[in-house]
Amino acid sequence: MAFGADAGAVRSILVTGGNGGLGLAIGRWFLEQDEETRVWLGVRSSRVKAEALAAEFGGRCELVGLEVTDRENWEAAVARISAKDGRLDVLVNNAGVHRDSLLATMSDEDWSSVISSNLDSVFYGCRAVIRTMMGQRFGRIINIASLSALLPPVGQTNYAAAKAGVVTLSQTLAKEVARAGITVNAILPGYIETEALSDMDSDAAKRAKSGIPMRRFGRPEEVAAAVGFLACQDAGYITGSALKIDGGIF
Ligand code: NDP
């Protein structure tokens, strides 16, 4: 599969939340698919797993400090990538958190940290890369939203609102940049086996699986393959889409 615009050039890919379950799987997918690819894993507090992936792939995988709620961090990260690769082909806005509680008892902090980590982050990230991508006349932006955007569960007013915002931001931006050869798509995972599900006990997991037609949680690699497809040249006519990966729940 080919990713960048120019054959022979390094394809430069930035994945935020690069130390998390999905971020690592997405990074690995690109590294294994294409030897001309350099993957930048955006990390903040934890970086041990990202460092292990970088060690496995040598100079083709690098870490870049990126607190996604901080616009100056974004500018610095994109400047570092552009200085090294001279381009940025793919941005995967993957970092995110959830802090669930009923709205009646939700703290201001739980509201604003979820909105800012999941939604402000996507705005800052898209804005930080868009000029570079326009200059290249090529770009792929893939935003990781959530099935909660369409089927909001009780206790996720903050997260569902943020992820629904990610979907509509993606659809709007897709129209704004279509003529510049840039596609923007959202992915809506259902339950995927990562740390994000670690607060679910085994009874809750059993109940959740019974509501999934496939009767299992998804694997991070199954999301990574879809991200990879949306990033490739052959997916150039897919833009503004919202792809559910949920084992048939919706
Ligand atoms: P993980 O908890 O494994 O990873 C999340 C990653 O995001 C971590 O590396 C975390 O960094 C990073 N992160 C969170 N907030 C910030 C921030 N403000 N700045 C920089 N990095 C940040 O979860 P997943 O891999 O499962 O989640 C990836 C994405 O997929 C998220 O957007 C999530 O909402 C979405 N998703 C996941 C689903 C699932 O079932 N797993 C379902 C639907 C959507 P650190 O470790 O330093 O905190």
TrEMBL record:
Task: Write out the entry's keywords from A to Z.
Answer: Oxidoreductase
Q: Which Pfam families match?
A: adh_short_C2 (PF13561)
Q: Mind telling me which InterPro entries this protein's record contains?
A: KR_dom, NAD(P)-bd_dom_sf, Sc_DH/Rdtase_CS, SDR_fam
Please verify whether the record's keywords include Oxidoreductase: yes
Q: Which PROSITE patterns match?
A: ADH_SHORT (PS00061)
Give the Ketoreductase domain ranges.
Answer: 11-190
SMART domains under this entry? PKS_KR
Source domain of life: Bacteria
Q: Does the keyword Lipid metabolism apply?
A: no
Q: GO terms for molecular function, please?
A: oxidoreductase activity, acting on the CH-OH group of donors, NAD or NADP as acceptor
GO:BP terms for this protein?
A: fatty acid elongation
| Record-stated family | Belongs to the short-chain dehydrogenases/reductases (SDR) family.
| PANTHER family, alphabetized | BLL7886 PROTEIN, SHORT-CHAIN DEHYDROGENASES/REDUCTASES FAMILY MEMBER
Name the record gives this protein: 3-oxoacyl-ACP reductase FabG
The scientific name of the source species is: Haloferula rosea
Its taxonomic path starts at: Bacteria, Pseudomonadati, Verrucomicrobiota, Verrucomicrobiia, Verrucomicrobiales
